[in-house]
C-alpha cells in the first residue's frame, strides 16, 4: 500500500504527526509512506527512517497535485483538513481520511469560555484517521532524529556538565513569560541556564543574559534549529512555552516544564505527549484562554496569566531533577 500523509504546518503540529507515520510504516506490511509538508518544516522528517519519501508543497497548488497524481497513491491521510487539502483530494480522486478539527467547538469554547472540545491529544486524534487501516497507537512518544554535534563546540565549559534549557521563544507575546519572570526563575535554579530561541527574541535573551551573568549562556539566534534541538536533548531539564521547540523536546524524555499563558493545551490537544516527568504550569482565570494561537498583546492589558504565574513550583520541579 502506498500512502500519502499531509500536514503543511506548523512546527508543533507537524512533529505530532510522527507517530502516525511510524505506526503506518511498522504496522502495515510493505507499506510505502510519503509525507507532504511546507518546505519550512521539512527538517522534521529529513532523517526519519520511517518515511520513504518527503514531498514539499509548491507555490502553485496545481504542481503539487500533479506530483501527487504521478505517485499513484492508494490512500491519502489528511492531517491538516483545510481548503487546500480538500482541493487536493477532489482533484486527485484518491481515497482519503481526514482528522476532525472541531473548528466550531473550538470557536465556541474560546468565545464563551466553554469546554466543548474533547480532552484528547492531537496525536490520538491524528491516529483516529488511520484506524480504518487497522493501525493502532503503539504507545510510544513522538519522533525527532537530531543530528550529532558536540557540546564543547556549542557551549562554554561552564555549561557542558549539566544545564537547564530554557526555551524563551514563542511566536506571540501572550505565550511568553515577561523577562523579569524568566530572570527570577533562573536565579533560583541550581544548574547553569542555556537560553534558546530565534532572532525574534534575541533582544529579550540579551536582557536576560545580562541580568544573570555567567550563569546563563545566550544561544538565541546563535545555534541553528537542529543544534538547539540537540542541546534540548542533552539538557538536565527543559522549560518552555507553547512553541514548536518545546513540543520537539517531548521526543527526548527530558523532564519538562510546559508554561502556558494566553493559550491552553486542552483547547488544542497539545499537552506534553508521552512525557513521564512533566509540569504543566498555568493559572485559572476567567479571561483565559484569550486565543487559540496567541496574541501580540494582552486584550485586557494586565497580562495576569503570565505576570501572576507562580515561580516556586517551576523552580522546585527543576531543582529536584
Please name the defining characteristics of this protein.
single chain; 321 residues; 14% strand; alpha/beta; 6-stranded parallel sheet; 5-stranded parallel sheet; 11 strands
How would you explain this protein's 3D organization?
By secondary structure, the protein is α/β, with parallel strands linked by helices. It is built from 14 helices and eleven strands. It has helices spanning 11-15, 18-27, 61-71, 83-92, 103-112, 122-128, 151-154, 179-187, 202-212, 225-234, 244-248, 265-268, 304-307, 312-319, and strands at 2-6, 32-37, 53-56, 75-78, 96-98, 164-167, 193-196, 216-218, 237-240, 256-259, 278-281. It has a six-stranded parallel β-sheet, with helices on both faces. It has a five-stranded parallel β-sheet with strand order 3-2-1-4-5, with helices on both faces. β7 (193-196), α9 (202-212) and β8 form a beta-alpha-beta unit. α3 (61-71) packs across α4 and α8 (179-187) runs parallel beside α9. The radius of gyration is 20 Å and the shape is globular. The N and C termini lie far apart (45 Å).
**Gyration radius over CA:** 20 Å
What is the terminal separation in angstroms? 45 Å
Shape: globular
Number of helices in the DSSP assignment: 14
Short description:
This protein is of the alpha/beta class.
Detail the topology: elements first, then pairings.
Blueprint: E1 2-6, H1 11-15, H2 18-27, E2 32-37, E3 53-56, H3 61-71, E4 75-78, H4 83-92, E5 96-98, H5 103-112, H6 122-128, H7 151-154, E6 164-167, H8 179-187, E7 193-196, H9 202-212, E8 216-218, H10 225-234, E9 237-240, H11 244-248, E10 256-259, H12 265-268, E11 278-281, H13 304-307, H14 312-319
Parallel strand pairs: 1-2, 1-4, 2-3, 4-5, 6-7, 6-9, 7-8, 9-10, 10-11
Helix pairs in contact: 3-4, 8-9
